[in-house]
Amino acid sequence: MPTLHWIGKDKVINHHMDVPFRVLEHSYGFDNGTQSETETKSGNKIIHGDNLEALKSLLPEYEGKIKCIYIDPPYNTGNENWVYNDNVNYPKIKKWLGQVVGKEAEDLTRHDKWLCMMYPRLKLLHKLLSDDGAIFISIDDNEQANLKLICDEIFGRNNFVSEIIVENDSRARPYNSVAITHEYLMFYKKSDKFIANILYNPEKNFSNKDCLGGFDLYELRNRNSDFNIDNRPNLYYPFWVNPDNKDENDLYELSLTEKDGWIKFYPQESKGIKTVWRWGKEKALKNLNINIFGKKSNIGFWQVVKKYREDSYSLNSVWTSSEFKSDRGTLTLKSFFENKRIFSFPKSYELIQQCLILSSDKNSIILDSFSGSGTSAHAVLNLNKRDGGNRKFILIEMEDYSNTITAERVKRVINGYSSIEGTGGSFDFYELGQPLFNDDGNLNESVGVEKIRNYIFYTET
C-alpha cells in the first residue's frame, strides 16, 4: 500500500504515546438552563485545551467506546485572518512543532506542518473509536489527497467507506478559472463490525394504501430482455387471474393453477422476445395474493405487480441539499448571536446530523475534537429531541472562545433561540488540568486518588 512521507513524520509517528495523561478539571455544569459548580454527570462534555492532550486524557474512560467521530480540522488554506485560524502557522501549533519535531520544524512546508499536526491526533481518534464505529472528516482540496493517504495508513485502506462530495457554495468565485463549489467528507469505519444504518424517508408518499399501510407497485416481469425464456426457462411460467375479483386498489386475485373462468397469461413479450418473471414459481407461490397481484395495464394486457412498502433509501456520494451548505451554517449561528458573524464558515448542524443518522444509534457517544462553534453538539441535541435518543457528545476546543462561543451556543440550543424551541439537556465544561505524572515519572498525588485509581484501572485491564 502506498504511504506518504514528509519532513518530521519520523518524529510524530509514535508521538501520541509520549503525550502526557492529563486530568480534566471541572469548571461548571449546565443543566436545563441553570449553570452551577455542580457536575451534572450527564456524559456530555465540553473540554477547553489542546486537543492532542485532551484526546489522550479521554483514553482511560473512552478507549474503544466512541461510536461516531466528526472533525472539521483546519483546511490549511494559509488564511490567518479568521476567528478560527485556518493555518498551521499560528503560535500554538508552531510551539508544539518546535517541541516535537525539533530544529527540522524551521524547514517544514505548511503541508509538512499540517501532516505533523494531524497524524498523532488521528492515531488517538483511532484508539477512541469503537470497533463498530465510523469517523467523518471535512476537508477541501488543500489537504484532501494527503488526508486520504494518512487515513489509509491509520484506519486501513480496507476500512475506507467513501469520499463524499458536499456542495457547500454554489455561488463561489472562480479560482484558477474554476469556481470551487464543493468540499469533501472523508468517511472511514473502524472495522467490518461497522454497519451503516438503513435510512428512512419519513415524508415518503406512497401511491397506494391498504390495511398494512402505504405501498408502491412494481412489475414482477423482468424488463431486461437479455433475461428471457432461452436462458432463464425456470422463470417463464403462466399465472391465472380472476377478472371478477379486484380490491379497492384495482388489484386482481391470482392463481398459479388453472381455474374455470380465470384468464391465463405469461410475461409480456418485448420485440418478439419472450421475457421472464423476476421470481421463480416457489417464491411467487409464497407471496401470491399477499405481496403480488394481477393488474390490468392501461392498454389492456395483464401483468403481475409486487407491493413495495420500503421507505428506505441509500445515500449517494454527492450531497447537494441546501441544508448542507456553508451559508446554512452561517445563518444558523448568527441566529444565536444577535445576527453577528462571530465565526467564519461554520458547518450546518444538518450536515453533521446526517452523519449521525447514518452511523450512530440512540445511545451512542459522539466526539468532535475540532469543535469550533459547537455544531456537533447542536446536531446531537437536535437529533435526540427528534427521535427520543440519549446520545452523548464530547467536544474539544483549544481556542479561548471555547466558553464564549462553543459552550454558549450549546447553552442556547438547550434553552431555545430566536423562535426555535430548546432541546433541553445538560453538559459539563472542563479545563485540561495537571499531568498524572510528575517530571520524575512518579504519579502526581495532587490530582487526587480517584483519578489515579481510574488511570491504574485503565492500564491494568
Describe the protein's architecture and organization:
This protein has 461 residues and is α+β, with helices and mostly antiparallel strands. It has two domains: 251 residues, Rossmann fold (3-Layer(aba) Sandwich); 101 residues, no CATH class. 27% of the residues lie in helices and 27% in strands. The protein is built from eleven helices and 26 strands. The strands form seven sheets. Strands 2-1-26-3-23-22-4-5-9-6-21 form an eleven-stranded mixed beta sheet, with helices on both faces. It has a four-stranded antiparallel beta sheet with strand order 11-12-19-18, with no helix packed on it. Strands 14-13-15 form a three-stranded antiparallel beta sheet, with no helix packed on it. Helix 8 crosses helix 9. It is elongated. About 1% of the residues have low confidence.
Runs in which pLDDT lies below 50 for 5 or more consecutive residues are 81-85
Number of domains: 2
Shape: elongated
How is the main sheet built? 11 strands, mixed
CATH uppermost class of the largest domain: Alpha Beta
Proportion in β-strands:
25-35%
**Could you give the distance between the termini?**
33 Å
Question: Helical content, roughly?
Answer: 25-40%
Label the CATH architecture of the largest domain: 3-Layer(aba) Sandwich
Please tell me the overall pLDDT.
Answer: 89
Number of helices: 11
CATH topology of the largest domain: Rossmann fold
Q: What is the gyration radius calculated from CA atoms?
A: 29 Å
Structural class: alpha+beta
